[in-house]
What does this fold into?
Amino acid sequence: MLNYVEGIALFGNAAFEGSRGVGRERKSPFVRLFTKTPTDVLCPHFYELILSNGCPYDCAYCYLRLTFRGRKEPVVFTNSWQQVQNELDRAGPGVFSTGELADSLAVVPPLLGEAIEYFRGQKQKYLLLTTKSCNVKLFECKAV
Ligand code: SF4
It folds into this structure.
């Protein structure tokens, strides 16, 4: 399992060097059902799994530019994994996206390694990551 420091080292990437995010405890829930899908859009409901907020890439067309009151530095949450797991265990089956208010991998959330391990053991819960980064080493198979 990766911890935060290992994750950052693995994903060393000049594109976001220096934008590793500000770490802080999250007070709000980590898991919430996304309910903002317009009624005329046929898209299944999903859960947000909020391990971080923001994105260092700052694309000109991105809605995140108008989110978080103009604050651009990503925030990564540093709570205990058990807090997140308790919420995941209570949630029903479905897709859990870490990429609604963040790029999932541009800055690696400290809780992501534990999240990946958790979802590996699930049959009806799926982790959805969305990214424009190439930080995929976490998912490479290791030779045994
Ligand atoms: S990479 Fe994605 S999340 Fe990041 S600024 Fe660009 S559009 Fe937004």
